[in-house]
Write a structure and sequence with these properties.
The chain has 527 residues and is an alpha/beta fold. The chain folds into 2 domains: 29-274 and 449-479, Rossmann fold, CATH 3.40.50; 287-444, 3-Layer(aba) Sandwich (Rossmann fold). Helix content is 46%, strand content 12%. The protein contains 19 helices and 13 strands. It has a 7-stranded parallel β-sheet with strand order 3-2-1-4-5-6-7, with helices on both faces. A 6-stranded parallel β-sheet has the order 10-9-8-11-12-13, with helices on both faces. β11, α13 (371-380) and β12 (384-386) form a beta-alpha-beta unit. α11 (312-322) packs parallel to α15. The protein is globular and about 110 Å long. The relative contact order is 0.10.
């Protein structure tokens, strides 16, 4: 190469280097702490950890139960923490209770279960041998467990929060994301926008309940457990620890709705658990799907619900309907006695859901309506029939119905006729498949994949030592300051004082005027 050519190449490389985007120059030590009481949450949190490990970071995961990604490059430590107990799930599923009575119980139970992580001997040993300087970043799987933010203070690192669905108010509150209840439906309401008058009434009431009742309960329970596990003589107050949250990753995307404003450090990574390239299916499952040219139905009520959580009547209804369908059905059922035997049903204790939904011969997904399942079905363009049971599932399926991706059947009132009617309609009316496949194309159309988004923003936080410049100033205000109660009180005081002074001055002037007024002199009568 000539000298001239060498100089040109050198200049191009230098200029290109200055204009190139910043890249990771080292492998950060990242701790993922995912104490979730639900295995389904781990598919989201561990997908975040897997993306970072695959990008070259040294990632250690402490988690409640079995690793959902066996081939991931992170170091996985299974703590065997308590999951949702049977009685808890039965109470949520079977009993028809209003939101206002059900969720206080839900919050107390979840925070109590999360607190049991600190009695785990593996975690206690880990914390005893790892402290300041052991890690560069903490990723916390969030589920009503604010007190676990104290681990950020223990390791003295920035915190990234991972949340598995559209944020609830407690998550918004961590980064002071605006609520905007006039036009942004909450997770527990239908997300069809714009809201009509009665929709705004419903949303306002639910948002008020979620904001002040549920969130205050979470804060009260978290404060109790935080003070016990992170003594004030060694750790900062919980309110200060909350200010150490650099990012919130939410498994949601604006294309799903609702449309809303977000602060810069709330990042949408909807579909993070969906593989960009599906893994090979187990041989027997692949054979069934490949040979069933007429199509296969996939049926799963999620990772939490087992047969023992359902009534015998509802199990019989589901089996009677599904066993009569002229299609092969892959039914995730564990670990109870099978509801019956039928040539068209293949029961399995575990099935690779994302990989199955990616197969072109899947014709229908019968689901509980958990957000992870709904997202995977939307991504792969598979129409749904939902049997929502608790949590966000009813509102998720209401939005599936409103969007035209499928139909929903109420569990409490479900009959063979209602379930079969919904299945037959979705199977034979092409509008459901066409609509969800159209959305699938929209959902995938992004400048970066969810995994690329995770890696970029975590690297950004690491490069900028916590990226405090992204934080909303509202993080540093208390509730009364955010509502401008102090400002309103101050201005009101000025108005009242001014009015008082004006009234006093006016009275004083009137009083003085009366005193200075000369009395009239009566003329003497002439004789």
């Amino acid at each position: 190469m000539s000298l001239h050519a060498t100089v040109v190449v050198f200049i191009v490389l230098v200029i290109g280097g200055f204009n190139a985007p910043p890249t990771l120059v080292y492998s950060a030590r990242i701790l993922g702490f995912f104490p979730s009481v639900s295995p389904s949450h781990l598919f989201i949190h561990c997908a975040v950890a897997d993306a970072l490990a695959d990008a070259g970071h040294n990632v250690t995961v402490l988690s409640s139960t079995t690793n959902p990604y066996k081939l991931a490059k992170y170091n996985y430590i299974q703590l065997d923490l308590p999951l949702f107990p049977k009685k808890f799930l039965q109470r949520l599923v079977i009993k028809e209770q209003p939101l206002i009575t059900r969720y206080p119980y839900f919050i107390k139970e979840v925070t109590q279960l999360a607190n049991q992580s600190f009695t785990n001997p593996r975690l206690r040993q880990f914390l005893a041998t790892h402290g300041e300087g052991s890690f560069d970043l903490l990723i916390l799987g969030y589920f009503m467990n604010d007190f676990h933010l104290g681990l950020g203070a223990h390791f003295k690192v920035p915190i990234v929060v991972s949340f598995m669905v559209q944020p609830i108010f407690a998550v918004h509150n961590l980064v002071k994301n605006p609520i905007e209840s006039a036009y942004v439906p909450t997770l527990f309401c239908e997300r069809k926008q714009p809201l009509d008058f009665w929709g705004r009434v419903q949303n306002f009431v639910v948002a008020l309940f979620e904001t002040y009742h549920m969130t205050l309960m979470v804060e009260r329970e978290s404060q109790k457990y935080y003070e016990y596990n992170f003594p004030p003589d060694r750790y900062p107050p919980l309110d200060e620890v909350r200010k150490n949250v650099s990012l919130v990753f939410t498994n949601h995307h604006f294309s799903q709705g609702p449309i809303r404003p977000n602060v810069p450090n709330l990042i949408e990574i909807g579909g993070i658990q969906v593989k960009e390239k599906p893994d090979p299916l187990p041989t027997d499952i692949a054979k069934i799907l490949d040979e069933s040219k007429e199509g296969v139905i996939y049926f799963s009520l999620g990772s939490n619900i087992q047969g023992s959580h359902l009534t015998e009547e509802k199990i019989k209804i589901m089996f009677n309907v599904i066993s009569k369908l002229p299609y092969k059905v892959l039914w995730k059922w564990a670990p109870n006695e099978l509801p019956g035997e039928s040539k068209n049903i293949i029961f399995r204790e575990w099935l690779p859901q994302d990989d199955i939904l990616a197969h072109p011969n899947i014709k229908l997904f019968i689901t509980h309506g958990g957000m992870g399942s709904v997202v995977e079905s939307q991504y792969h363009g598979v129409p749904m029939v939902g049997i929502p049971l608790f949590g966000d599932q009813p509102s998720n399926m209401a939005n599936v119905v409103n969007s035209g991706y499928g139909l929903s059947v109420d569990y409490i009132t479900m009959t063979e006729e209602s379930l079969n009617s919904a299945i037959q309609d979705v199977l034979h009316n092409p509008k459901y498949k066409e609509t969800v496949q159209k959305f699938s194309r929209l959902y995938r159309d992004r400048p970066m994949t969810p995994r690329q988004t995770v890696v970029y923003w975590v690297d950004y936080v690491l490069r900028h030592q916590g990226a405090k410049h992204m934080q909303s100033p509202a993080v540093h205000l208390n509730r009364w300051q955010l509502l401008s109660v102090d400002v309103i009180g101050f201005l009101l005081a000025i108005v009242l004082i001014s009015a008082f002074v004006i009234i006093k001055v006016f009275k004083l002037i009137c009083c003085c005027g009366k005193k200075n007024k000369l009395p009239k002199v009566k003329k003497a009568k002439q004789n």
